[in-house]
Amino acid sequence: MSGPLAGLRVVEVGSEITGPYCTKLLADLGADVCKVESISGDPIRRWGALLPGDVGHSGLFEYLNAGKRGATVELAATADLAALHELVAGADLLVENLSPGSQLRWDWGLDPDNLARLNPRLTVVRISSFGQHGPSRDRETTPLTLQAASGWVNERDPGRPPVQAGARIPEYIAGSYAAMGALTGLRISAAGVGRPVEVDVSVFEALLSTLPYPMLLAERLVKMGLPGNAKGAPMLGIVRASDGWVGINCLTGQHWLDVCAMVGLPEFGEHQIAIMIGGPEREEFFEKASPWLQSMTVADLVELSQALRIPAAPVTDGESILSCPQYAERGFFIDTRNDPAARRFVRPGAPFRLSKTPAAVPRPAPPLGEAVAAWDAETESVSPRRHGAFSALPPSDVTQPFAGLKVFDLSTFWAGAYLTCYLGAYGADVVKVESIQRPDGHRYSGSLLREGDDWYERGPLWQGTNLNKRDLTLDLSSETGRELALRMAAEADVVVENFSPRVVEQFGLDYDSLVKVNADVIMVRMPGFGLEGPWRDYVGWALNIEQLSGMSSTTGYVDGPPCNLQGPADPIAGVHATVALLAALEHRARTGEGQLIEVAQIEVGAAVAAEPVIEYSLTGRVRAREGNRHRTYVQGVYPTATDDEWVAVSVRNDADWAALAEAVAQPELLSDIRFATEEARLGNHEAFDEVLTAWTRTRTSAEVADELSMRGVPAEQILRADRMYDVEQLDARSFYQELEHPITGPHRFPGWPFHIAPGPKRHHRTVSPTLGQHNDEVLAEVGLSVQDIASLRDRQIIGERLLNS
């Protein structure tokens, strides 16, 4: 057994994706995970393409559960329950995704009172749709309706109903947040709180947490007299080339000018905003640009765009991703198709690389029917527990589990900043570095909102991502600036960056340089494409990650183009990097050994969009996009009586169908042969859609959702940005926290999608800093005098206002 979490004992009572993906990440990092199932087994065993031979489960099950041991519990067997309780009594962590009202939790003795008797030092992670409390706690949900409730179902193909994200990506996201919460809870448990630490994870809040702060943006638009739900499409977005789809993504005004020059239409350079928001110029531009784009291959368009430093990437699917040279040269996908001793298919590898504690090749997933077995003595000998707790990092204050951790934050935009925002929220001292010559590019996001000379302090995306930090400006193009940065890094526990690899290497702030002055430093590097490989120096941002990793190809209608998810790739990478970092900190606490953590964002994207490549490797076919449909039951997104309001509805089984027939006051539907069974409804999906649409058009989205939900049918309104502050469930769980910004005033910022008890009482500690706000105090802490600091300011190595603003 190896890995930074070697010795961590985890019991998983989970099914489908959220719980198993949480524990998969922990297993990748060396944890000993025991997966507990009932005799019917995890339903994901039967989802999608099955492994060949008599293995008896799907490729997706194997991906999610490789490396775990198994235990099957018969509810009526007293011996099984006693063995399960013994297993829990010896564990450090229990992860379950039972519904809050599940009887199984009580039948198996996993309720809070019994767990406290069995193991008071246990950390318990409970994952549920809306969390363990609040008015929506017991609402029936499906992946579609949860996406709808959290603002993930969006217009991605103009003129058609909003559509969900494909490949069950949101469920992986919730699982990754659960892993982050689990490792935080373990630190708190080590403080000896005398009872189990509970981490209450809300999938709903996890999805909201990955959105690019639409509620803050809507608030700002309204204050400026603009529609709060205004949207702009990324440009160019996904376009057709001669041999496939390609994503060309303008992040800055300069990118747009370069794209216009590249396609031979420089006259459109002044019309970026009008084209983004769908003005008449948009149609004219694409009418003229499309012939040129479609005369080029995907590879040529990517190569030409990248030569001009325009973010571009191919849109891959389950087949083409395997021939992508960057993935291939990095050996990311695990291919066992030619190994007679293995279960033959292709799956993603671990979504992070740790230089001193690499992930091991996973063992096969457990078969169903294994008896509950006691823990091996091996885990105790690998990592002896400190005072009965796994974590070697007990906090002195459980409300600040990362207090004392020094973080030097060289990140830009969102992915790295999300990691450091989390650490700072719970006590870490995070020093954010930018410069007055070239500030963090995230300050420029939302160019429509530029107002006043201090516009760079007002951006909602900047503010939301950089809470809980101190801000230091250093001109890293100067020798003095680089020397000061190295001095800061020498005293840090953690250094974080997510530039393209050449940037920090040119500054002499790469890992090899840092360990010369700080031998036990942990450095987290989060390049878009990875530190090595033929595309390592490509430029890219979230949309490129979605396009290259297979996320976009699974999203959209079967007869339409691939669609961008528009945002979540950054925080998804940040959460995975946080999981790896928290594990590496445990390893350092035990061994004194720091290390380099590489989190290539394209690999995280592929890890949470795993199913297409798995299915292609097993079937030789690329599954078509599914729009809003489901493989085993009928569902969709339907118009309502109010323009631009939609509602998502799922009918999972005959009970749901009977309840829906009652709600629409059409009892005759129950005798309609077209809808008599689940298979019949799937075969007559369009007719089902017509029946439901005729009813939903006569009601508001709230009326439809309430009428069906009260009958136990999963149904949710499509949440719009301008209504995200008006959700009773979020108020009940204190998801938003109000902080006062010195320039833009009070704002309600989204928090983290879990509650830890005992643990932090607030989501955030401080509002985002202004540019260079903490120059004097940070530089004084590393020994500079008042005169030294004044000299740096005179030479514009530091400063508090953007140059040439």
From TrEMBL:
Keywords: Transferase. The keyword Transferase applies. InterPro entries: CoA-transferase_III_domain, CoA-Trfase_fam_III, CoA-Trfase_III_dom3_sf, CoA-Trfase_III_dom_1_sf. GO terms for molecular function: CoA-transferase activity. Its EC number is 2.8.3.-. SUPFAM superfamilies: CoA-transferase family III (CaiB/BaiF). This is Putative CoA-transferase. It holds the Pfam family CoA_transf_3. It comes from Mycolicibacterium vanbaalenii.
